[in-house]
Write a structure and sequence with these properties.
Residues 1-31 form the signal peptide. The chain is α/β, with parallel strands linked by helices. It has ten helices and 37 strands. Strand 28 and strand 29 (591-600) form a beta hairpin.
């Protein structure tokens, strides 16, 4: 929606041999900062990095689109996917005439120029077909020109951009000439577009626009609709699409608040995947997730933007999003402020536009000068390579986040983000399922105010010092290479009850023992081991989400890489002395009305009762409640009543719940100490 670089060697990357400069060794006063523990768990496998992971947005109003200088900067940064023709402009852009009625089109920004730049960068295109003012026939013609006439091989096509912003929910910024602005109408057109486009080239992948859980209008059901935007689109168009397309601008009024938002990613992607699986019909597992716009609200072209980019790209890719794309390559200044000692122009761009703010009180550096987020993207290009598998990490300090990948050659790369603007942090790195070499690791850093990345050998595999407001990429080798280690098992599956899960997986060889681990904050828990290809795990907690991996070990003790992850949620008891029916009956995007019906199935009447449940996330809270006494205690809520509840009788209570992130609903309820059946 918004109007919005990166570079490695030859683009301001500084190579220094001085360990103090590379590691950002702090002053004596700074060195007194509390030490931080980071755990890196090679047994906790997450998603594997694909060939479209690192992306950016191009826009037809940007005169630098496709120029050799920009294409080379993006190539240096490792960019793998570029999006065109640019956010909301996509819904007014007509590719054949290269016009956007009501908007500005810069010279030399046509589709062929874009593709020449993409090819020079070595990136795949993500193309937005015009839904707002276009037709399915127009989109099919674009596919024909791109892939039949020109042989560009453009695989990824989305139908429109932020089409929920067409006024249907009140706010209107997205062009939409359809008389019916509902998600039902959008879904029906997605089916028509996909049919017409795939008739030209059946190998393309078509995506539909959804909203990110926790972002407006998630949760809202508009008048006349049967469900939310996501529910309606997935139910009606799920069989016709190959991926969904979401944007994420999580906000934050201060750098600290903005830099805390990436903690919401795991829950948001979990909810989105759950919606896809629930509503998209048979074969929903084939539907991928693309994040084609993201940015931060504070410090956009200074260090908060860089730290946010590194955290968000890593977090989303680890959860299986196949591409993450920054908004934008260029955007232009808005106003000049000082953020952490650096001038910030409130510019969404990765690269400077070389222009001045409206009152000419401040001017950006020369055109195409990389801003801080560009350097963070460059570091991501060195961190997450195609074929690497993200693995689990954990940190005991909210101001230090960590991400890690395991490379096919056995190396581990650990990316650490110090969000503390004032203090350095000395980090103790603890490895699980991996023994690092004693050699001094190579460390690549990006410090606040730096002109580029700095690389040198520094610290040890077990200890690193992070400068204030900095990024550090540590690459460590294994103590020895196991050339004949078993292959990773295939993706597991599970059959789940309230307290058990029977986990099964494809065999990865003969004569192997399999170990099943539960991911747990960077230190996995061994749930069990077997020589078979299934394992029943008992004593689980009802209504709890679990993520597990399977690893194979041979007779020589060599351990395989982790399987792809499996996430499941345990249910409630099939029978219980109580039943709870919970519903979100009215949602407005940052709060909802919850309705709870309680039934006594027990052998005797209850003379007073207490219902207990917990908020699944830290950003949920109780606003108010009725028909009982509601008492919040941290993330636990107690609902008490002195009224009696006869055998077979039911009672209803309700509440207003507030949330400021993805709204994961409570899944387990306890009445007078008994876990209830939830329906």
């Amino acid at each position: 929606m918004h109007l919005s670089l990166r570079r490695r060697a030859g683009a301001g990357v500084v190579l220094l041999a001085l360990v103090s400069a590379v590691a950002g060794v702090p002053s004596a006063a700074q060195a007194a900062a509390t030490d931080t523990r980071v755990d890196v768990d090679a047994r906790a496998g997450l998603a594997t990095v694909g060939d479209t992971a690192l992306g950016v947005n191009h826009a037809i109003w940007d005169s630098q689109l496709g120029t050799p200088a920009v294409a080379d900067l993006l190539k240096d940064a490792g960019v793998q996917m570029v999006r065109y023709p640019g956010g909301s402009y996509a819904d007014i852009y007509h590719w054949e005439t290269h016009t956007a009625p009501g908007g500005y089109v810069a010279p030399d920004t046509d589709f062929d120029t874009f593709m020449a730049g993409a090819r020079r960068t070595g990136a795949q295109p993500m193309i937005i077909a015009n839904y707002g003012t276009g037709t399915a026939e127009e989109a099919a013609g674009w596919v024909r020109y791109a892939n039949v006439t020109k042989g560009y091989g453009a695989r990824y096509w989305t139908i429109g951009n932020e089409n929920y912003g067409n006024g249907h929910y009140g706010a209107s910024w997205e062009a939409d000439n359809h008389a019916d602005k509902s998600p039902k109408e959008y879904a029906e057109n997605v089916v028509a577009y996909a049919k017409a486009m795939k008739a030209v080239d059946p190998t393309i992948k078509v995506g539909a626009v959804l909203t990110m859980p926790g972002n407006w209008p998630d949760g809202i059901v508009a008048a006349g609709d049967s469900g939310t935007w996501n529910q309606e689109v997935l139910t009606r168009a799920g069989a016709a699409i190959d991926f969904v397309d979401v944007h994420w601008y999580p906000g934050g009024s201060t750098p600290a608040e903005a830099l805390g938002k990436p903690a919401q990613i795991q829950d948001a992607v979990y909810l989105l995947r759950e919606q896809i699986d629930r509503y998209a019909g048979a074969g929903a597992g084939r539907i991928g997730i693309s994040m084609t716009e993201t940015n931060v609200d504070v410090g956009r072209n200074t260090q908060p933007g860089a730290l946010f980019l590194a955290d968000v790209y890593s977090g989303l890719l680890a959860q299986g999003v196949f591409t993450v794309q920054w908004w934008n390559v260029h955007n232009g200044p808005d106003k000049a402020t000082t953020v952490a000692g650096q001038t910030d122009f409130n510019d969404f761009g990765l690269l400077s536009s070389g222009t001045c703010v409206a009152d000419n009180s401040a001017c950006e550096p020369a055109l195409n000068t990389p801003f801080a987020p560009y350097h963070a993207l460059s570091l991501l290009g060195d961190f997450a390579h195609t074929g690497d598998q993200f693995i689990g990490t954990g940190s005991d300090d909210a101001l230090v986040s960590a991400h890690a990948v395991r490379r096919p050659n056995g190396d581990l790369a650990v990316l650490m983000v110090n969000k503390d603007p004032d203090a350095a942090h000395t980090v103790t790195l603890n490895y699980h399922g991996f023994t690092p070499s004693a050699a001094t690791p190579v460390v690549e850093t990006f410090a606040n105010g730096a002109d580029g990345l700095t690389t040198a050998s520094a610290g040890t595999a077990g200890t690193q010092t992070l400068a204030p407001y900095s990024l550090a990429l540590v690459t460590v080798h294994p103590s020895r290479t196991e050339s004949n280690a078993p292959k990773a098992p295939g993706r597991p599956a599970a059959t789940v009850t309230d307290r058990t899960a029977t986990i099964s997986w494809p065999a990865s060889g003969s004569g192997l023992k399999y170990e099943v681990y539960r991911q747990n904050g960077g230190v996995s828990e061994l749930l069990g081991e077997t020589t078979g290809t299934s394992l029943t795990v008992r004593n689980l907690v009802p209504g709890r989400r679990y993520t597990v991996n399977v690893l194979a070990r041979d007779g020589a003790g060599r351990l395989s890489p982790a399987s792809p992850p499996l996430t499941f949620t345990t249910g409630s008891p099939a029978t219980s002395a109580c039943t709870v029916k919970f519903r979100d009956t009215n949602d407005w995007g940052n709060g909802y009305v919850g309705s709870i019906d309680i039934t006594n199935n027990g052998p005797a009447a209850l003379n007073g009762w207490t219902l207990t449940f917990a908020w699944p996330t830290a950003w949920q809270s109780l606003g108010s409640g009725w028909n009982a006494t509601w008492t919040p205690d941290g993330r636990t809520v107690r609902v008490t009543s002195d009224a009696s509840l006869a055998v077979g009788a039911s009672t209803s209570v309700g509440f207003v719940g507030n949330y400021s992130g993805p709204n994961v609903l409570p899944a387990s309820f306890t009445l007078n100490g008994t876990v209830c059946t939830t329906v």
